């Protein structure tokens, strides 16, 4: 809240998942610790945010857009100064390869810069007038109040910032709860937050979300919940709010995005995109392809190439150059993934790309399961890891039915070469998801594109410009022409 508080209370020790390779004899590697705040300190942070907002009369919400942009530009400058430390924490905390950790950092800087450009455009629109009958109208975007920002472990910096940055630039004050995996990387940024932003505008609370956040929600003082995480967390937090009608939710949640590979598809392209879609950051992305439907007549050819491509992926430690498969980030995850594989094998699937062990310490070697059917857990569950269920289909209605019956509705990929066939498929699919990708993997970017989903996958739309709207409210100033002095 404008100051870095010293802390002599309990702390959470953090061990890197990169070294949780117990059964290879490697000791867990201690990388740091963060404070475990109590409810009382979390309340103090909330009070600081509420005071700084001061019902919209505080310094930050009343600054001009140009002044807020000036603050953000100074923040970018300070952030770049600590890039190396942030990137290294990111790599150690979640096992993301060094090159992908750097990409996440650079993408975040670009996201902030793009947001500032979009903000200038929005401000131009807001400063214009429209005249209808005898009324002059001006639409302004006004802040909402206090925003709680919570991001996920897979993009602890970038995705958290896709709620933090738009919330801040629109004049809100913020409570930020860093993810459990990805909390340490905020340490190098603390001084920049404190030096650049007025007191109480951004309040970072470290600790156990389950303990701290529900009481904060129960105060009714949080106006917007910006959460990239699970629907379980989102629903639990919404329930705490005493007046849900006064809580706006901007949520990025689970997904089970399918790829549909049609006869006639360029198989090299389909394989390349499916490998990236299924396995970038070990499949630990909400946008990952999590189930593949392949037309029966090309299933064998596709699987042969797909398995070969996966087996050739370089695996290793995140700092090794060119590495693709790295350790999974969450403790206990390899056991869960192994359960999914065993369940599918018992029910008739095979791991088609390997016949040996799939785990080694915190590594989980990608496992392609075929043929998968609806009685297997991996058919329904969001694996969020490197297990790839594959089914063959005769009729296109099969993957469409799958999507209709799914609890999720984020994205889909179609691979094919016949424009008419693809066009026929797009119509039923746009009614199930919020992005249809043709001959390309599912993904969030470019960040100027809208990012959202149906059903349990999302609420509200994030993107450079949409986010400015979801973290603000449209207010009309309407003046009767006749009463105004003509000068
Ligand atoms: O985990 C969900 C992220 O929004 C995925 O983003 O598609 O850029 O990897 P990405």
UniProtKB/TrEMBL annotation:
Keywords, in A-Z order: Oxidoreductase
Domain Aldehyde dehydrogenase: residue ranges: 31-471
EC number: 1.2.1.9
GO MF assignments: glyceraldehyde-3-phosphate dehydrogenase (NADP+) (non-phosphorylating) activity
EC class (word): oxidoreductase
A UniProt-annotated Pfam family: Aldedh
PANTHER family: SUCCINATE-SEMIALDEHYDE DEHYDROGENASE, MITOCHONDRIAL
Protein name: GapN: NADP-dependent glycerinaldehyde-3-phsophate dehydrogenase
């Amino acid at each position: 809240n404008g100051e870095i508080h010293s802390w002599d209370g309990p702390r959470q020790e953090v061990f890197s998942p990169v070294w949780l390779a117990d059964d290879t004899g490697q000791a867990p590697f201690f990388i740091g610790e963060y404070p475990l705040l109590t409810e009382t300190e979390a309340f103090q942070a909330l009070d600081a945010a509420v005071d700084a907002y001061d019902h919209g009369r505080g310094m930050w919400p009343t600054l001009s857009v140009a002044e807020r942009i000036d603050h953000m530009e100074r923040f970018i400058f300070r952030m770049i100064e600590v890039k190396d430390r942030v990137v290294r924490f990111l790599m150690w905390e979640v096992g993301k390869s060094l090159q992908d950790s750097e990409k996440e950092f650079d993408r975040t800087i670009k996201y902030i810069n793009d947001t500032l450009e979009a903000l200038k455009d929005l401000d131009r629109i807001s400063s214009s007038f429209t005249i209808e009958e005898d009324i002059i109208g001006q639409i302004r975007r006004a802040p909402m109040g206090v925003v709680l920002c919570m991001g996920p472990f897979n993009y602890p910096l970038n995705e958290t910032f896709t709620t933090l940055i738009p919330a801040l630039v629109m004049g809100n004050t913020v409570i930020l709860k860093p993810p459990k995996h990805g909390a340490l990387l905020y340490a190098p940024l603390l001084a920049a937050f404190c030096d650049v932003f007025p007191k109480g505008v951004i309040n970072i609370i470290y600790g156990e979300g389950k303990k701290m956040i529900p009481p904060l929600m129960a105060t009714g003082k949080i106006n917007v919940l910006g959460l990239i995480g699970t629907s379980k967390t989102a629903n639990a937090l919404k329930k705490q709010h005493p007046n849900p009608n006064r809580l706006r939710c901007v949520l990025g949640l689970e997904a089970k995005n399918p790829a549909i590979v049609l006869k006639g598809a360029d198989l090299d392209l389909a394989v390349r995109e499916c490998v990236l879609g299924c396995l970038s950051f070990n499949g630990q992305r909400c946008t990952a392809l999590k189930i593949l439907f392949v037309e029966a007549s090309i299933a064998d050819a596709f699987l042969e190439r797909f398995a070969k491509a996966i087996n050739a992926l370089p695996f290793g430690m995140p700092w090794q150059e060119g590495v693709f498969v790295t350790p999974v980030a969450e403790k206990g995850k390899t056991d869960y993934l192994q359960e999914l594989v065993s369940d599918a094998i018992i029910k008739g699937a095979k791991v088609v790309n390997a016949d040996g062990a799939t785990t080694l310490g915190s590594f989980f070697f990608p496992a392609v399961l075929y043929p998968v059917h609806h009685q297997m857990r991996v058919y329904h569950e969001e694996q969020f890891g490197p297990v790839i269920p594959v089914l063959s289909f005769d009729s296109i209605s099969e993957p469409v039915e799958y999507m209709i019956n799914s609890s999720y509705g984020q994205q889909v990929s179609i691979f094919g070469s016949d424009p008419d066939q693809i066009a026929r498929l797009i119509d039923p699919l746009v009614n199930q998801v919020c992005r249809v990708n043709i001959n390309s993997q599912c993904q969030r970017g470019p960040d100027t594109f809208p990012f959202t989903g149906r059903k349990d996958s999302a609420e509200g739309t994030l993107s450079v410009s949409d986010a400015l709207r979801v973290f603000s409210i449209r207010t009309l100033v309407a003046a009767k022409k006749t009463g105004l002095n003509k000068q």
